[in-house]
Amino acid sequence: MSVACVIGNGPSRLNFDLCQINKLMTTYGCNALYRDFMPNYLISMDYNMVKEILDNNIHHQLPFYTQHENRIDELAKTQPINFFWGMSETLDSGNGAVKLALEHEHDIVYMIGFDYSTAPDQLPNVYSGTKQYVSRHAYPAASMLDTKWEHRLRKLCRKYINQQIIRVNGTRPVNVGCSNYTEISIEQFNKEIYE
Q1: What's the whole-model pTM score?
Q2: What's the structural domain count of the chain?
C-alpha cells in the first residue's frame, strides 16, 4: 500500500516530526515549507512565493510544481519546473499538493497542517507576517477562501474516489461529504503510522 503525506502550513503542523514522517512515506509540501523542511515534492501556486522558490534555487533540489497560469513556462526550457496543465480552475497550493499525491496513485493521502480559518477574518499560518505572507489578521475574506478550498477538496475526493484522503487535526472539521474522506486526531495518526 502506497502512503503519502501532504504538509500544509497551518499551526497544527508544528505538532508533527516531519523528518520521521518523511522516513515512512512520500511527502508533498506547500509554499514556504522548504524554509524549515525539504519534502519530496514542493508545490506553490502563488506567484510571489514561486519567485522566492526560484530565486533560492529550491527547484534544483527537489521536484517543484506550479500552475501554468504563473506564466513562467519560458523558464521551463532551462529550469527544472513542472506544471499543472489542463485545469478548469486555478488550484490553491494545498489542494494542488493533494491533487499531485493522488495523481501519483498513493492509496492513502494524509493531510497535516490544513487548519483553515479560525474566525471570519483569520487564516492561521506558521509563516504569517514573513516575506510573501501577510499578517493572519489581514484576511477580511478568510471564510470565502475556506469555502473555495473546501469546494476544491470535495471535487478531488469525488474524482479520486478509490483513494483515501485523511485530514489530521486542524482547527475545525470540514464537511466534505465523501466516503473516501475522513478526519482523525494527531493521536490517531501517530497510532496508524508508528504502530
Answers
A1: 0.89
A2: 1
